[in-house]
Specification:
Blueprint lengths: L13 E4 L5 E6 L4 E3 L4 E5 L2 E4 L12 E7 L6 E7 L7 E5 L5 E6 L9 E6 L9 E8 L12 E7 L6 E7 L7 E5 L5 E6 L9 E6 L9 E7 L5 E4 L11 E5 L3 E3 L4 E6 L3 E4 L11 H13 L2 E4 L1
């Protein structure tokens, strides 16, 4: 006689909740798999990106410098458009998703949670002139300065922050030192050209490429997603899924396409034995997941 194993029922792992307050909708990423109720999820919230400093398009001769990115940076094209013909002309800034950001003025440093820069007059500035800042996912950081060095092997660490990591050369030398500053303005560490740099934030190798000059720098950009998608929680990941987002409430199949799911994200008690994890997760790592759940006021019992 065949043995029938009853599947886990929707919400079976829930001991207590705060009804609608405890739940949020989440799109599971393509390839997340066929998941059962009780699956512990993370969200893909971080990715590497790059953006060179653009040149002006139009009849003017202004220049952009000091380009950096904040925690709200998006992948795509930022359009900066002059609205007057003047040495201190105003300009508009539109994000890739169409959001109008605060306006700015030529010769005054522009700052926002998306991007920051300075546009200099450069001789003439004309109404309708445009700078297009192209933020490319997975792009290669571009040297800013007079040298010809290159960056390779760029990866994120588990504590990577959204925004810009600035890698600044400290000496004119083929093996000179450089420092790395995080988006929060704090030092990540120092390294040397031609030697792999490793940290819990970013990893890379800076190659000489001919010349490296004091003051040259690279921007390593960590960008987010306007609508982060879910996957099984992975404590070894660096894309954001190492942080617990919540617990799947009902069986959902995202093996070959995205799928909308309902997720327990806060204020609840759950049955520990009914939670499921990626097959590689160890007992010690599960303990970390329970700690992260507790930080979201989800208490795993039993």
């Amino acid at each position: 006689m065949a043995v029938y194993t009853e599947p886990t029922r929707p919400y079976e792992f829930v001991l207590a909740d705060q009804r609608g307050l405890s739940y949020d909708a989440l799109t599971l990423a393509t390839g997340a798999g066929s998941l059962t109720p009780g699956a512990v999820l993370g969200r893909v919230t971080k990715r590497l990106a790059a953006a060179p400093i653009p040149t002006i398009v139009g009849t003017g001769s202004g220049t952009m410098s000091g380009l950096t990115f904040g925690p709200d940076v998006q992948v795509g094209n930022y359009l900066i458009t002059l609205t007057a013909t003047s040495a201190t002309a105003a300009f508009t800034v539109v994000a890739p998703d169409g959001t109008a950001l605060p306006t700015g003025n030529v010769a005054t440093a522009y700052k926002s949670n998306h991007l920051s820069f300075l546009i200099a007059n450069g001789g003439t500035m004309t109404t309708g002139d445009v700078f297009t800042v192209v933020v490319t996912a997975g792009g290669t950081p571009v040297l800013v300065g007079t040298g010809s060095g290159t960056v390779s092997g760029v990866t994120l660490g588990k504590y990577a922050q959204l925004g810009t990591y600035k890698v600044r050369v400290l000496a004119t030398s083929a093996t000179g030192a450089f420092d790395v500053t995080g988006p929060d303005g704090k030092s990540v560490g120092e390294g040397n050209i031609a030697t792999a740099f490793t940290s819990d934030h970013v990893n890379f190798t800076l190659a000489n490429g001919g010349t490296m000059t004091l003051g040259d720098y690279f921007n390593i950009i960590v960008a987010g997603y306007s609508a982060p998608e879910g996957k099984l929680w992975d404590p070894l990941a660096v894309d954001g899924t190492q942080e617990v987002y919540g617990i799947l409430t009902a069986a959902t199949d995202a093996s070959s396409t995205t799928a909308l799911a309902n997720v327990l994200t806060r204020c609840a008690e759950v049955k520990r034995s009914a939670l499921t994890f990626k097959s590689t997760v160890t007992a010690a790592q599960k303990a970390e997941a329970y700690r992260q759940l507790a930080n979201k006021l989800i208490i795993a019992r039993g």
